[in-house]
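The protein record passed on below.

***
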Amino acid sequence: MPTMQAVQVAKAGGPLELVERDIPEPATGHVLIKVQACGICHSDSLTKEGQWPGLQFPRVPGHEIAGVIERMGAGVEGWSVGQRVGVGWHGGHCGHCERCRHGDFVLCQNAQVPGISYDGGYAQYMVAPQEALARMPDDLSDVDAAPLLCAGITTFNALRHSGARAGDVAAILGIGGLGHLGVQFARKMGFVTVAIARGQDKAPLAKQLGAHHYIDSSAQDVGASLQALGGARVILATVTNGEAMSAALAGLGVNGKLIMVGVAQEPVEVPVTQFIMGRQSVQGWPSGTAADSQETLAFSALSDVKPMIEEYPLERAAEAYDRMMSGKARFRVVLTPGKH
């Protein structure tokens, strides 16, 4: 039986350990993917710390997977061996729950997530169901594609479903792993793009990413600054701070919307009168389906949106994970199992 290298977590809170495993066989409706690159996401901590209900160990983390179809199980249609594919957070759906019956697959009540429900991309090979596959453009590299399958799809999908139109003011709150992609997408979608972060030192990066305006939240009133630009049609909150989100609400314009994609522990305080009189709203946004991932990859290749990444070989996965968790990475960490 041929073997592969994989990085697994053997128990909740345990270390990431490099192991030899048999290369898995794809079941009916599944494909075997040779992993070329896999992004490391903060959500991988759910696997490492055993925080996902019902999680079974040992488990290989990773849900930002770029690779090539190596083998196909019975019943797979529309795909071929050698085809480049991506797999993101949405790793499969049941097709029969109430949400699936209404076509809302990403909120499936029995949703599968790579690296949580089944072994993910911290490995040389992994198996995924065909409904989780996204086609990858030829002119998009594996390492650039991987983070787009979580951070990319989340920001792209939220912005394109926000109701904002070209020429409207779109503010990106936070310039980190999500925000640095959000700024690029907002600019390429034709929005008046405003980047918001702490400190003047981030202003050059914001402009480099495509922001028309930069607001230093440590020195300026975010709400007043956005109102001076006409008010935001959408504020995409990528930070993990509820107070920062609350402070930005004063910058919403008429019909403005705050969309939360960063997970904050603190609640967001909504000024009720302002929201009533401005017909404003607050919304959360999950990532998206495999079709959304495919459209994210296509748009990114078309408009030259790329994540800023730090690459690590598979055997240094533990170090790469710690780098991501430290918050010091600029801005996405990517494993490269396909490079030997």
The domain at 3-152+288-335 is CATH 3.90.180.10 (Quinone Oxidoreductase; Chain A, domain 1). The first strand starts at residue 3 and ends at 9. The chain has ten helices and 15 strands. The chain has a mean pLDDT of 97.
